[in-house]
Design a protein that fits this description.
Elements (H helix, E strand, L loop, with lengths): L7 E2 L4 H20 L3 H21 L4 H26 L1 H9 L7 H25 L8 H13 L5 H16 L4 E2 L12 H22 L47 E7 L5 E6 L1 E2 L5 E2 L12 H5 L3 H13 L4 H8 L12 E7 L14 E6 L7 E2 L5 E2 L9 E6 L6 H8 L3 H13 L5 H21 L6 H10 L6 H14 L3 E2 L10 H8 L1 E2 L1 H14 L4 E7 L7 E2 L5 E4 L3 E9 L3 E5 L6 E2 L1 H26 L1 H15 L3 H19 L8 H12 L2 H16 L8 H18 L3
Parallel strand pairs: 12-13, 12-19
Antiparallel strand pairs: 1-2, 3-7, 3-16, 4-14, 5-6, 7-11, 8-11, 9-10, 14-17, 15-16, 17-18
Amino acid sequence: MKKRSKPVFNGAEIITALIYLCSICALTMYLLCKDYAVICTIIMTALCSGIYMLFYAFRNRKLISFCIFISLFAAVALICSSVGAAMGRIALIEFIYTTSDTFSVPLAAASIVLFSFVVTYPVFYFTVRLPRPCFLLLPALAPLILGARTVGALPAGLVAFLAAGYFVAIMGVSRLEYPADNVYIEDKHSRKERLIAFGLFGVIAAGVLLIVPRNDRTIYSRYLDTVWFSRPNFYGTRSTGFSQSSSPNTGNNEPPEDLLFYVWSEYPNNIISQSFDKYRGKDGWTYLQKYSYGHSDWRDEQSQLNYNKLAYDLKSGAEDGKLAKYADDLLNLPDISEDSIKSTAMYIQAADNVNSTVVLHPAGTFNASIANRQDTIYRNAKDEMFTETPFGVKASYTLDFYGRGINTEFARYLSGLSGEEYIELLDLAAEEEVISEEAAYAFINAFDLAEDYLIDTTDVAITPKIRELAETITAGLDNDYDKAKAIEEWFGRDGFVYDLNFVPQELTAEYFLFKSKRGICTDFATASTLLLRAAGVSARYTEGYLIKTDIASIDMYGRYEVKADQGHAFASAYIPGGGWIEIDGTKTAAMASAAKEAQRVIFYIVAVVAVVIVLCVIFRKRLSEAIFSIRYKLGRGTKKIRALYLRTRRIACSITGVEPKSATSGEVRDVISRTLSLEKEASEITDAADALLYGDGGVKLNEKRLYKNYKLILKARRARGKG
């Protein structure tokens, strides 16, 4: 019997595989380790190279390489379990599955080990063990999906580096060669099969990347010009350091997470940074110079604007028999707690290397002082606060404010009075010594300023459609407080959706209000401000930061860590009984989270289906053999032998490249005898087929023996190589 020839393994170009590994490492570490990406990339590349060389050294010893694989798998599982036990299992998942500025050496080390193992073995397998260039994309699938999940868009340079590494690796995969005396004709269909497999995988990968949800853990703030970065011309030419205009929603909603400042307060109200006055449609909001000049002597007047104390004093005066004209209405209002009258404090400290002239503050602030400095703090008619020069990095300041909420019934009552009645009530209260003359002056001045502001800002930006909508929303309401709240709640009733991923076709308020009904906080704030003005309520577009326990994290000192992704926009509406209050349509709008949850489920389903399809493509022949084996053992009669012969004929034709339909049983027997040295086995199968197909049907066959012969032929064909 002629000895069968075996294919000669010529090895893989190791350097090409290592270049590809380096590109995947760079992408992975960019996603996980941020500022430490360079050093972590070097470490991960070195580790991946070592693992690859270890597998390569034992490439011809399957048992040893399998043991190495299992050992490394166990080591990775042990390391991840140890880190999980030490730092919390969720911590490692969050470190990998979210984009965070927080860097942890143990979590980074565990991630490097985990991804090194996940990435390296597939690269080795598809460059050396089973060379399939199209499946070399599999190791890059995890960081690509992670990138789509966390940052949405990857830098073009990293993508180019990854693509270059992939194509270099394709050129370096191992090749199978055969001895000259071994009859071999390359399968002419193999190239077509590889192209089909590559196309299928590309479609699956593209589908997964399109469906995978992006990171939306916090409220988007790219469009808010933060006051903490000292970039040249970032705020325009104004000496106060404020932005000249807001930025409309263009759809590029990736939330930054730069740490801006720390906040400590017993009542952590939201923070105000800047307000805008004039709406310019697709160009966003800008300011009116008239309301931008600040003054330094604002503390005394602002300290009088305690609306809860005003409610308390007015009701107390009515109970004492004063304010006769308004006494009945005031006595019907609920009691005002003395605790709500008290002021509270807020402490703010800028983060490292952050410098600014803008003094962030909550609504109702009446005092501010910068620690260890004598800077004059100015305040303008829009309640923006600032200094003339930057007050230094890591600066801290203390704010006193009235921030324990407002009495809604009192605000509803006073905002329902006409302007003349409101001023008359305050003058009467001062005359009868219910409140001080200074307090009466402060409240009347705030009212007059809000009235002037409404006149100056209600312009052509409020179209007839917006005005008609505002009238519809506020129909039947007789006070400004109810009107403002009706507008805020209307967004929830009319099906608006807060959606970070939505890309608007038009950058106008009308498009948001009447067509898309989807957007981010800037869209809601713009629409709310315009609707409030159309309803006769003085309002301004305000930017600031959300300070909430479910958004801001708390450090070891009990301070809230406020990041750029907590930036928020909302409307500020003036209510005579409550001052400037927040009107935020995003509070009542539906969140896109429910849709994203469904999207997440779809992603997992698609991912599982994609993996199943890829595995079926990779192991399609073995899967086909397994199905045939089951069908053969369960089948009956001549169909079994016929199927067995057809599969044997297919094996023979895969060697010669001849179309199976044109091959005779004699040619099948000759090819298998000549190339696989299994003449007896081939003869028994072809003779049985001839007897069944061309005989009288009375021949008895040993089905088990024939199937055993077929398995020997199949095994020999695999050992010979696929070509």
